Predict the structure.
Amino acid sequence: MKTPDLLLLGIVLFVLLEFGAGTIINYLNERSKNQPLSPEGAAIFDSAEYEKSKAYGTAKYRFGLLTEAMSTGVILVAILLGAFAWLDAQLRNRLSSNLLITVIFIAILIIVSSIANLPANYYSTFVIEEKFGFNKSTKRLFFQDAGKQLMISLAIGLPLLYAIAWIYQELKSEFWIIAWLLLATFSLFMFVFGTRIFLPMFNKLKPLPDGALRTAVEEYCQKQGFPLSRLYEMDASKRSTKLNAFFSGMGRVKIIGLYDTLIEKLTIEETVAVLAHEVGHYKRKHVYTMFAFSNIQSLLIFSLMGWLLGNPNLSKALGSDVASFHLSMLAFFLLFAPVSTILGLINNALSRRNEYQADQFSIDTYSDARTHMQSALTKLSQESLDNLNPHPLYVAVHYSHPPILDRLANLRNKDN
Ligand SMILES: [Zn+2]
């Protein structure tokens, strides 16, 4: 067998393997979910709510199975029929600049995939979420969001891609270190300013209104040296009834956002306990560890790309005799899938550890946070019909936060 055929075989195997493994893990999770209600679980759901949470999980599971099967089928057909090489040849017939061909090729992939994802997102929002009473979004808002997301990914992705492809064209095998430095600089910018720039395009952020909550929050923030001017209420209720809060940014450009749904459904003490958890993410410098890990990941990716991208067999594997940056990169990322799964596992494990640390910070710095955090998390789970019994493999692959019962058990533990 020739090298391009071997690479093509590898690509097809990895696509099938990813689908197969993903389907098995989803199935195990579906089976694990349908256990009888445990005594710990009974503190969260009564039996009717528990049945509803299981039905919600099953609806998402079945729909996920369908969309995964369809997208895997489309990708396999595109690879085996040489659709990527065909698109490349069409652009090559019309354009002479390699850089321009790369940018337009990727732009077409981004546009086609975001349009192809629209029906599934629509069904998930207006049928599944709607049926279980979570959806607040209107069709107008849904399409506005999709349009904005597409524009943002094109506006950010294409100039960055152009720069990286240009560096590759000029430097070839040594390109990876310069391209990585460029991406690291850009990701620093995004870690610091990303949320501040892009979130307001989707949501309104406003300071907490005067009142008992603001007074309680003010007191806590003062004690922790967290500027109140960096704390916002966000109008999440225009899309979903689910509750949440987040910390984002670095140094002076940091923000904590509390969903208006959270403020509405939690008591003042519970809200401050959640706020203390978010301040914990800031004080324990979790953004810095995530930033460092994401740059180690991209360093690994770029060093492998520096080593492999010059090999014309990558483009040949996708059916093109003309080696190009974009086809080689596409083949590279399809072959890279197993490594990227492993990196995802590490990323999630790191994130779940950070969640426990932030919970601990809340306990250590806010009086009775142990109790308030437990009741806050219980409400969060009730309001999103959480899966009480996710399968450990599913948790490892998909959960950035620990499962609710583990988190509650950790909060009850008197030793921490
Ligand atoms: Zn957290």
